[in-house]
Amino acid sequence: MSTLQTALGLAAAGVPVLPLRAGKLPFGNCPTCAGNACGGRPTMKSAGVCSCPGICHGWAAATTDPDTLTSPLWAAAWRQAQAVAYHPGGAGLTVVDLDDTAAVSWARQTLPPTRTVLTTRGEHWIYRGAMRSVNAVRDGVDIKSTMAYARWLGPGTGTMTALPDTARALVVKEPSALTPARPVASAPPSGGGGECRHRTPAYLNRGIAMAEQQITQAPSAVHATVYRTFLAVLSAHGRCGCLTDTHVGRLFAAAQTRGESARHCTDAWTNALTKLGM
Fold this sequence. Notes:
four-stranded antiparallel β-sheet; globular; alpha+beta; 10 strands; 14% strand
């Protein structure tokens, strides 16, 4: 079965899919979307802010639309594709990616049985229910669900069960691991006393989601990316008191999934505040 046929079968079952090139990587953004100049896709392809018909923005390109999957732009990618990927969170699923035998042994002692798919080095345990994606929640264990993709390796064996609290707890940091950021000073809304536009939930939430995506998908220079992203968020939303501890916590958590320490997150945030004179 070809990669496109596999993708169409998954899409028909409600699983959003995308092609992967060599190295299990998504296809790169088109020139218009390079560097998220288009505004990116904080949600999935069918609901994002970018209207590009190509296979851009990694996991966010995943779709169940057969017309998109068979369009000329996508057809060219399928001819080059080495594998099919899917967006677990978009299908209401979570993949616990166990990268070695030690991780598999841990899962068998800790997590409830569910559908299991063999990988080249370990296993994917697939549960019903979505959650935040985080890499390296423990040695050899990644969580792939929202804002992530997993390689399709077959239907697997066993009965899929509900996502357990023990899996959700893997991404919860100890309170001390996330150092509270310095409060952002409030300023009167610009424009004559009307309600600040940043308080529109869609505007602010889209900005935070895009910032999380920029951090988690940075191919290199993570330290610099975290600082630049914090700076951009504060430039757009930091002078009117819109940002809450929850928003800041989401940004810190995204950075920590890429290996940043709580100390570096705090330093980067403080440096961005200083740069902007806040």
